[in-house]
## 1
Amino acid sequence: MDKSKKTHNIILYGIGGQGTLKASEICAQAAFLEGYHVKKSEVHGMAQRGGSVESHLRFGKVVYSPIIPEFQADVLVCFYEGEHKRLKHFLKKGGIDLISYLPKAHKFLKGNNRYLNTFMLGVLSCYMPISKHCWLEAIDIVFAGKFTKENKDIFLQARKIGGER
Amino acid sequence: MIKSGKTLKNSIFLSGNEALAQGAYEAGLKVAAAYPGTPSSEILEYLAGFNEIDSQWSVNEKAAFEVAFGAAIGGMRSLYVSKHVGVNVTMDGLMTSAYIGVNAGFVIVTSDDPGLHSSQNEQDNRLIARMANIPLLEPSSPAEAKVFIKKAFELSERLDVPVMLRLTTRISHTKENVVIGKRVEVPQKKFEINPKKYVMVPNNAFARHIDLKKRLQKAEKISQSTPLNKVEIRDKKLGIITSSVSYLYAREMLPDVSILKLGMSYPLPVQKIRDFAKKVKAVFVLEELEPFLEDAIKAAGIKIKAKHFSWQVGELRPEYIDAILKGKPRKVAKSLTRKPVMCPGCLHRPVFTVLRKLKAVVAGDIGCYTLGALPPLGSLHTCLCMGAGITMFDGLKRANVKNVVGVIGDSTFVHSGITGLINAVYNKQKGLVIILDNSIAAMTGGQPHPATGITIKKEKTHKLDLRQICIASGVDNVDEIDPFQFKQLEALIKRRMSQDSLSVIIARFPCRIISRKKAPRPLYIKENCKKCNICLSIDCPAITADSEGWIQINKDLCTGCNLCVEVCPFDSLRKNNG
């Protein structure tokens, strides 16, 4: 756990139906289980499928604003190439953009895109001050028994690809 | 009942809506009523999980308000919930409920939508609290929502008045660590016959109006002393007076400034504001939307600065704070978000495809089908409010606009379409109204309603028969049709539009998000394809063209509805019988 005063800022975004919000919820639950103050903000727009989706996730000792100010995101996790540009300017100087993992994810999943969110989460986990057991417990909580084992497998493999430390 | 996740140091990870519901539960809430609407819907869904609470999706907000208010008068702590525009529907009852006051506590929860993420306007309901003379609480976060709802019930009982609690999208749909506690049962209060308090005829109401003003004076005293209105003195160069989520933006961006945070923002604690202003060199009022605090503080003769008027539109964000404090106007950036689109296999798509073909002028309503307004379908031409799909159809026809058709969803029809339909029959209107029946309130997340025969607690109840309602209202022709029977649908709409009678077509097919039924995707016969793009014009997310213009059907998205097969003129798309 990071005991400094730093607030960790992550934006997860994509299009409706990709599991963006689920991925964000898992990350949020993992940070919560680690003991952080967590805020996660998202907007439920008009389109159920195919519309723009974004989730702002922040955790640290104390978090104020529910949304991340421009130029302050530490990490961008984009699930859809076509949307990447839209929020790129939120990334701070020297921040981490996981877009380069998207082609790797597609290659790894061989078209089985239902696990795209879990794969990207595995990569994201390598950059977060959150213990592995909290991630796995968060997957249990959010998937609630539905394909939990499959998702954990993908998560752990993606974690290796992401350069687990 | 805890829905999501684990309890850690007595706290769980909850959204603002869930936190508010949890707080209401702990406060001994017994009756809750609402009509679903983003961003407020999850409050009642969370409450419905508690056996101790009588929760309901009401037919509309008016019904919800009056049921909940009646229960409060009957002696039980009660709650009304809706989105900001939903409160408009309650206004007849709301305004007079302030005169009556309460018996047990009664709280009105409004979830406003600054920035119009999913609404037809961005009205600021703080003005309704002022108009109705009822106290207003504004939490800034989920954790505060849980605390404030308890205070709201206490205030309501202490002051004998309904209390409004205002959330916004950024509070309702933010999740954070929320400390939870145990429910405290509140004994029921006895209902006593008391016409002077409960029967609002002119003489009684006049006396209650005088009394309301006295109650409001009492509320102002509480506003001066309540810890909900909190002074935080830091650097004294600048003091910010703020409320709601704007407080968090100020804390985020200006950690050193002094702040007067107004958790109870009506009636205003004028003396507290005066004292605060004396302690700092300059005062800036920071608030979203209307100049609600600004106007009142200025009227009290306190010298303040406030945002440029252009910021009265749209939601605030932390990165705007600097420009706002400098008095700069708002720059409106072009939105890069994707065009929202109906789901693959949605029943609205065939109906709008026909209406476009027939060049109908379509009076629309509020629901997923409002998306029919966007190109390339572009076949919905008005959208005002719930129920107006029928009443504006009626008005447009009276103005001799040709080819007018009204469309309305099933839940919306029950909400406020029925009165419009009876009105049309009574006043001898002719023409065609289509009820788009996906058997759910889809856009708000899939809630049941009277025509589904299921309650919020997932219990069976009487299923309202839409056809019988139309017949009983006196409609000449009532048809029910599966809109994916495309040719029949087209013929039927054409026929009914041309007749000199009043017709209702109920186009019925269950929402795909809820039913998730799929058939095989159509076969693409490339040799037959002339790249005419008619299949693309139905705006199905499952159909795209590749770089050479050949059609691709996405196997993950396609539901096998075969509308593209129906519209293809060259037999290039064929039904796949598996």
## 2
Amino acid sequence: MPIAWIPHPMRDMTGGAEKVAVNGANVREVIQALESLYPNLTGLLIKNDQLGKGIAVAVDGRIVRRGLYEPLQSDSEIHFIPALGAG
Amino acid sequence: MNDYVIPEKLRVVGTTPIRPDGHDKVTGRAKFGDDFHLPGMLHGKVLRSPHAHARIKSIDTSHAAAFPGVHAVVTAADFPKIASNVIDAGESGQIDMQDVADNCIAREKVFYDGHAVAAVAADNAHIAEEAANLIQVAYELLDPVMDVRSAMADNAPVLHDNFLPGAFLAPTEKALPNASKLELAMGDVSTGFDQADVIIEREFTTETVHQGYIETHIVTAQWGANGMVTIWTTTQGQFAIRDQLALVLELPMSAITVIPLEIGGGFGGKDSIYIDPLAVVLSKQSGRPVKMVMNRAETLRATGPSSGTYIKARLGVKTDGTLVAAEFHGAYEAGAYSGGPVAPGVSTALTRYNIPNVKIEGYDVLVNKPKVKPYRAPGATPSNFAVETMIDELCRELKLDPVEFRLRNALTTGDRLVLGFPCPEIGGVEILKAVQNHAHYQSDIGGPHRGRGLAYGFWFGAGLPSSADLMVNSDGTVQLCSGSPDMSGTRITLAMQAAEALGIEPSDIFPSVGDTASVGYSFQTVASRTTFATGIAVYQAAQDILAQMAERAALIWQIATDNVLIDCGRFLNKANIQQCFTFKELAGKLDGTGGPIAARALASPEGVGFQITAHLVDLAVDTETGKVDILRYTAFQDAGKAVHPDFVEGQIQGGTVQGIGWALNEEYFYDEAGHLKNTSLLDYRMPTILDVPNIEAVILETPNPGHPYGVRGVGEVPIVPPAAAIANALYDAAGIRMNTLPMTPAKILDKLNSLTH
């Protein structure tokens, strides 16, 4: 089962849990599964059907380009991180 | 995504061929922004706000419009109010395009000294300037807020009633009147600090600095009779300029062609539009092409510098030198609109050390200064300055060797980052051991008031989309066209990767930079990404070329394509290796076997190799004047694989010198009313060749498995450690601990005087 790591500002919503194992074939499904456990969490991660402002997602150690549509393996790790930018 | 199998031996990558654009650049033949002219071209000039914060009550352009020689005058009223204003900018996050538009020309308020208010196109630049000064603007003055701590105070003047916060997962839209908040954490800092034997807490400030590119912003725009717009400009990203223009002018992207000219420096500052939409609308109104050139004062006043900061940090360490806890609070200027470098700044503050308990807070803070822009590893220099000087202080308190201390705590492959995920392959330990074993580290400094400082730095880099086209000519040469402007020799580093993959010589590849109508989409030349990400696009296009050529060989030999062996520029019949074509021979047979061959690849690579570096500096400080002389400087950096080692060295040297300027000299001076007072390069003091010794670059190579030749980006991280290394050397030389940038002679004298009083 994929493991979603909960960003620090959202851990109040997960009772302090740092990581949660949830089913999902892609990032969107994982967020939906998290929402069923912790209502209102989706609103922080998804805005206008996209990852929210300033949020990027890393899957298995790589910042991925397909966002909510990134496919997951059964043992994938998902991290929601700040978009970093560069010069 | 699978890792690449990196060849043990490379034939072209790692050599140092001559860059194809070099001769034209040193002889003046290369076309930069100001070298471009069109028949009938007008010249545009901007009227800029003399106030840092004011509401625009009215604008009267009638006198300017009536001035002889004037052909068009524009204000914000000539630009659309944008309907859909938030766009995704890849790993840079999202951008509020109304902010971008308002930054180009103020709509209701001016937010900084130099903010554009109106623009004029005339027969020449002198007429345009004179006419612009005839425009009458009535302002209602508002109190400016010029630094992050004032802007975060409860009673601070509010810049925007609403803004798109630069926060990360903040539950509220605005954490403070002018700021939004970002938080990161791992472990439990409270427990961590309980385990610490020594805890130090320090505060730091750094000032606003500019990238200091020598060529200013220059654009020529032509509104065609058919509504098609053509732009010639100097930019880090022709597609970024096109897309931003399309959004702020509400035009189809396909109606705009942006042709990139050579670029005289960017360093992150030429990734977005300023005068471009003004030139387009002036051209539309006048029916003539319009050229606009920002002078140095305009560039310093009204283009994006890098943030001034306020930082407070706390580190906890055990007596054996193990870091057990860290807290980092960083407030970064965003400038007039939200979205500064707070995320990369605070995310890299501690990333290079494996600290189990970390808490980070970052604030993106609106102030009445120009909207900040990236500057080589944006945000990382101030945070590195803070943390690395504290590390030096801990080393001295615990009497530990600074390299040994860093080795004990170094982030290694697989360690969890503060972002949560495991660190990919990284050569930090190798870097630190290279420092330890280097003659510089083992040498005596000698002489009074001389000192040595070390700092260790990190940067993420990025992937993002890149494109490359390859076309095989009948003589066996190859055209290479990418969408990545060449800021640092990337024409040749891309050609070398093509040559390596195709099995031919770099001199057989002709590399060029395409315009937005002729090449596939590419993100800007930013984030140390071009040799890495565009290099992967080149590699993928080359694999396509090889496959197509193998089909032609198979056709000629009447065998299955699988039976063609491709071996370093040769195509052989596996069943009869006497049948063999060189690349050139087979290229000559394309016309009779189906026609020319070309390939296009668009890549968005995710296997980014992190950048790690250590800088070692010796300096002397004059205790009577406070002047610092850099005596010796060695920069150690992991390039993954140095495609062209001379250009890696150049990137290291260039970034280091910019870091030295940030450390010792450079800063924006504003008066209390928010007027920028140092608007020339005489008063904004960048280092010259007389100020720095040769920067010795030591290049290490821990391959990045996310690139077919192991490449990591190299362009950004060299600017990260210089300030901290110099500050640490100053302590070694004179016993003064600096907590502010720049470390000017006056500040150094103050510190020296405080030692004796």
